[in-house]
């Protein structure tokens, strides 16, 4: 436990963390990778390049400082990050390294303002927070390994089948090389896939896009490109892999999962965000008669996994950003253009629904705002952001 003196010192640094948090985390990654390039095999290079990781870490450090006297408030975030750490293989011995360079970065950026009292307080605080992560992840590692069909670290899977879902999107059916039965997973969870590209290992998380079964994992992968038109490192590599080639895969992980309820259930997806929601929907219809699925896509050619959804016992609605008059008239889509609050309010008659959102961050922020304005309880709105965590509120 932290002393009251330490807590007060940490809280006194909140204003400067709000102002210079990203400077600190940028300096932190620069210093750490310079001295420990082996950690580049763990961290996402793309998120480093576009600075999403630096921003997310800055927000996390700020939140930890602001809530240091109420650590229970950050436990949900700890669990979410711990799932990611377990899936990529973060180990206890790496935490002291992170702590060393985070403190160096704080001192570098704050300069003379980083007094011995402040540095000591942050060293003590980091130690407490690191131990929370280590203890949480230890339980997750043990659970993943000991469950039926589970394993430690990464396991070799081969691509049994590739299916073209749309232009630039493929589904991969992955089976274990050892032919052992697979562990079950909670609908909505993901796996980490690790591939070698140039001199580094690269790890990405992909949602499991089908219902749990003992034979295969299915992931549905969009070939990503950045603003400069460069292809995504891992997604591009996967798209070029042939059936029969081998990947390294972690056991399923993740906190964004379907929760059994008697209330109405609504799934709203944007683009490739449909992938975890398909798995959830297949579970939801087994136990709930009031399930709605709203799928927002650019156009009909991007309507991923729609045929599977239409075969389920649920109310399905498609929203095309770009639709022809014929498509609208024929019922191929129920909305032409973007989802509006009025349209959503018309289609969702109950504010007591449990609602699951997944898609681009901008899309989810707009939908989250609509739902809150409509009177939906915030605790009933569940969402996942692909990549470093950000809030929608």
From TrEMBL:
Q: What does the UniProt keyword field contain?
A: FAD, Flavoprotein, Heme, Iron, Metal-binding, NAD, NADP, Oxidoreductase, Oxygen transport, Transport
| Catalyzed chemical reaction(s) | 2 nitric oxide + NADPH + 2 O2 = 2 nitrate + NADP(+) + H(+); 2 nitric oxide + NADH + 2 O2 = 2 nitrate + NAD(+) + H(+)
Where does this protein have coiled-coil stretches? none
Q: What is its EC number?
A: 1.14.12.17
The protein's matches in InterPro entries, at most eight in alphabetical order, are given as: Cbr1-like_FAD-bd_dom, FAD-bd_FR_type, Flavoprot_Pyr_Nucl_cyt_Rdtase, FNR_nucleotide-bd, Globin, Globin-like_sf, Globin/Proto, OxRdtase_FAD/NAD-bd
Q: Name one GO molecular function term.
A: FAD binding
Top EC class for this record: oxidoreductase
Q: Where is the Globin domain?
A: 1-138
Q: Which cofactor does it need?
A: FAD; heme b
Domain FAD-binding FR-type: where?
152-259
Annotated membrane-spanning segments are none
One GO term under biological process is: nitric oxide catabolic process
Q: Which family does it belong to?
A: In the C-terminal section; belongs to the flavoprotein pyridine nucleotide cytochrome reductase family. Belongs to the globin family. Two-domain flavohemoproteins subfamily.
This chain's protein is named Flavohemoprotein
Which organism does this sequence originate in?
Priestia koreensis
Lineage at the top is: Bacteria, Bacillati, Bacillota, Bacilli, Bacillales
